[in-house]
Specification:
single chain, mainly alpha, 434 Repressor (Amino-terminal Domain), 70% helix, 0% strand
């Protein structure tokens, strides 16, 4: 399936997860550039009826109509099995999911076009989470993970390793959303799965990232000792060296943990090292997909965050002030760093 289909659009997929047909039709038209009349031949419904659905004057309840619209809009396979729900029906990984992974290396060949497609839309989910919200997309990402792991029992070798990386990326995303929703136990279960799958597939950058995220959780939970241990381990995630971007975020997390423990000289040294590593990869194509955001501005913000943690208020304020304009399209992150800037300025 081509990444150019309207179904790569995150808002459309979130509407599908809610089974909100008024929004589904509007978002499909927006993503495809179609008018209401343009939808008529696709779904076999006249324009006045489409208008009534979109305005809320008509509800879509007929199974026959839903099936016709699902087929006409060419809904991807990973979405057609979604139950009608407003949020996750279970937070933790299921036994069935683990069983699929356990049989990941049987002999066989799988058509990876589905995996390619799911990789495209996962990248869209990462970028849109600030706007759409992770909880709205949870059922979609969980269904995508099912599709990825369903391919594993018939796959082997490098193809299986590639699927394990994609599965690990999904598990990390689910962990992050669960943590934001204060589901800490499931969040840890998902991030541990992400780490294990990354190791199994031979992907040190993702294995390191999973450990870095776990260190972040420990720090947020008020345990800087465990955070420092885990962040230190994230720098040595496998037999192959990490990419500069992956090492940069691991070192930055180590700096933040060291600062919380009062080891400020060490934290400053590590923050400088992390900043230098991040600047080695200015092009997004040279970074792992989940680190698409680690550009020069984000690297500067990380350095300012470490200065803030070390109570170097003037350095922190200067860094936040310099990099904040780059966050204009990320309202949640902009608000977070703006608050830190204002606090640092008060303390100078």
């Amino acid at each position: 399936m081509s990444g150019q289909t309207p179904w790569a659009d995150v808002r459309l997929r979130a509407a599908w997860a809610r089974q909100d047909w008024a929004v589904i039709l509007r978002e499909y038209r927006r993503a495809s550039g179609l008018s209401q009349r343009g939808l008529e031949p696709l779904i076999g419904v006249p324009q006045p009826y489409i208008s009534a659905i979109e305005s809320g004057r008509k509800r879509v309840t007929s199974a026959e109509l839903i099936a016709r619209m699902t087929e006409g809009l060419n809904v991807p396979a990973e979405l057609t099995g979604l139950p009608v729900r407003s949020g996750p029906d279970e937070w933790s990984p299921s036994a069935e999911l683990r069983e699929r992974i356990a049989h990941a290396h049987t002999r066989g060949r799988a058509d990876l076009r589905t995996a390619d497609w799911i990789g495209v839309v996962l990248a869209q989910h990462r970028r849109a989470e600030d706007e759409v919200g992770g909880l709205a997309l949870w059922p979609v990402v969980r269904a995508q993970l099912d599709q990825v792991t369903a391919l594993l029992p018939g796959t082997s070798g490098l193809a299986a390793d590639r699927l394990l990386l994609l599965a690990a990326e999904h598990a990390h995303w689910l962990s992050w959303v669960a943590w934001q929703e204060n589901k800490h136990g499931p969040a840890l279960a998902w991030i541990d799965l992400a780490h294990g799958w990354a190791v199994d597939g031979g992907h040190p950058d993702m294995a390191s990232w999973a450990q870095r995220v776990r260190a972040h959780y420990s720090l947020e939970y008020g345990d800087p000792v465990r955070a420092l241990r885990t962040a230190e381990g994230a720098r040595f995630a496998g037999p192959r060296p990490l990419s500069p971007a992956a090492e940069a975020v691991a070192v930055h997390q180590e700096a933040m943990a060291a600062a919380q423990l009062g080891e400020r000289d060490r934290a400053v040294r590590l923050a400088e090292e992390a900043h230098g590593l991040a600047l080695q990869v200015p092009d997004e194509q040279e970074r792992p997909g989940w680190l698409y955001w680690l550009d020069a501005a984000r690297a500067r913000l990380n350095a300012a965050d470490a200065a803030y943690a070390c109570q170097r208020w003037a350095d922190a304020a200067a860094g936040f002030r310099e990099a904040l304009p780059a966050l204009a399209g990320f309202p949640r992150d902009h608000a977070y760093y703006r608050a830190r800037l204002e606090d640092a300025e008060r303390r100078v």
